[in-house]
Amino acid sequence: MSLVPFDDRDGWIWLDGEFVPWREAQVHVLTHGLHYGSAVFEGERMYGGEIYLLTEHTKRLFRSAELLDFEIPFTVEEIDAASIEVCKRNGLTDGYIRPIAWRGSEVMGVSAQASKIHVAIAAWEWPSYFKPEEKAKGIRLGRAKFRRPAPDTAPVESKAAGLYMICTVSKHAAEREGYADALMLDYRGYVAEATGANIFMVRDGVIHTPTPDCFLNGLTRQSVIKLAKKRGFEVVERHILEEELPTFSEVFICGSAAEVTPVAEIGEFTYRPGNISLSLMDDYARMVRRQPMDI
Fold first, then answer.
1. Using one digit for the tens of pLDDT, what is the confidence trace for 76-96?
2. pLDDT-based confidence at 294, cuts 50/70/90?
């Protein structure tokens, strides 16, 4: 099956306050964000015509920009409105939304304080992050060579483009070995996350999840914790040692793109999607679509 390139599609993209035809939403090759990673972005999902946690995502975009030392030249309300409108113009009621802000091409060098800040929002159909047959039985995770950096070495609280370079490399390596994704440790050797999703582990009916002190405290992660507690499950946020991996009975990951996805393997260790993983997968799917839940 041939891929449809993202630069050659029909539709509309919001760019610096204007709606432009999809193919015309372009930047120069000497854009600072391309050369130095001075870009921040969000990944959002629309279900049934409503973008889940839209304002929370937009506020995080602004916070990420602040951490990268630039200011987005629009208000949160303007970005929210543009995100909704770009979905309407592209005829979407279910899809994926990608706002991004970056330093432009006025200055080419490490210091770029005079660069113009650009903002764009695109939206497209994206039914599932993982193959449906993989998600149903649990995905397989390999091990990432790279680790999430320490808070004093990178702006780890930001959703910055540059921080995803090691994620791409790690996911590519995992896919070449037949895995769907990779488990990343943090700079201390504790379990951190997958390449683009937070992780949860179950032992004796208790849910354990890594403390997000050097990676994103995902909005989906926060939603899943609330759902778990509402269902009566105990959730413990703590540092998790790699040696603990074989002691858990269930593992699942979550994120705006991944939603809630059970894990069947992490390297040599196997898990079975059980009551907790499957119930939270169902609860989350029902919640974002505003369907009744049996809680």
1. 999 999 999 999 999 999 999
2. confident
Question: 132-288, which class in CATH?
Answer: alpha beta
Our answer to whether residue 159 is catalytic in this structure is yes
148 half-sphere exposure, CB direction, 13 A CA radius: 29
User: Is CATH 3.40.190.10 the classification given to domain 12-124?
Assistant: no
Single-letter amino acid, residue 260? V
Catalytic site residue from 137, 159, 226, 230: 159
CB 42 within 8 A of CB 122: no
Separation of alpha carbons 34 and 56, rounded Å:
26
Domains 12-124 and 132-288 alike in fold: no
pLDDT, tens digit (0-9, with 9 covering 90-100), for 185-221:
999 999 999 999 999 999 999 999 999 999 999 999 9
Place of tokens 């609330």: 226
Question: What pLDDT score does 2 carry?
Answer: 60
Domain spans in the chain, listed from the N-terminal domain onward = 12-124, 132-288
